[in-house]
């Protein structure tokens, strides 16, 4: 007797083993990314006083800045200009000629360093005149300070300048370079007698200027500053 059942057998076949996926590796560029263009650094020699010590300090600082690949340096000597203290929205031809020596250079700068002495607990009138004749040229750019003087090293002038440049929407970096009793620190050839500390201070300040300069330049390339 044949015996049948209503259950039907289900045949299964073993799964074919899956080949493991080859992990993807990130794409690599054939050439390394090129460094950004150097920042245009305007170094402003703030004193125009007869017999000034400013060129010694400015030349020392410029020699440090020009040794870096991330800056091109333009030294602006205020002894080469004669800006009046009387401001005008419509200056005469003579004043426009003086402004033509400096305004475009300030506008083209990505960052600034002001080299200043201290006169009567503050900074020189020549520097204040340059600052006040301009506005847009300072905006959204970093600025550092190199000061020199007697026992104070010009730092009281720097503290006043920080307030002024904040009003002009400039970004003052924290670190400064200051020379106390500056005349005794340099030899007759303008070389610093013990440069290690000053060199380190200049490097720190320039590093901060480079960071802020690149950050602000990149930001302004995307969106205009709301000054």
Based on the model shown, name its key terms.
single chain, 227 residues, alpha/beta, six-stranded parallel sheet, 6 helices
Can you lay out the helices and strands and say which pair or pack?
Elements (H helix, E strand, L loop, with lengths): L38 E7 L8 H12 L5 E7 L15 H7 L3 H6 L2 E7 L7 H8 L9 E8 L5 H13 L3 E2 L4 E4 L15 H27 L5
Strand content: 15-25%
Q: Catalogue the unreliable spans.
A: 1-13
Largest sheet: 6 strands, parallel
Q: Mind telling me the C-alpha Rg? A: 31 Å
Helical segment tally? 6
Question: How many strands?
Answer: 6
Average pLDDT level = 90
How many angstroms does the end-to-end distance come to? 103 Å
List SSEs in N-to-C order. Answer: EHEHHEHEHEEH
**How would you describe the shape?**
globular
- Give helix % range: 25-40%
Query: How does the helix and strand content classify structurally?
Result: alpha/beta
3D architecture notes:
This protein is an alpha/beta fold and 227 residues long. It is 32% helix and 15% strand. Strands 1, 2, 3, 4, 5 and 6 form a six-stranded parallel beta sheet that branches. Strand 4 (142-149), helix 5 (155-167) and strand 5 form a beta-alpha-beta unit. The radius of gyration is 31 Å and the shape is globular. Mean pLDDT is 90; it is low at 1-13.
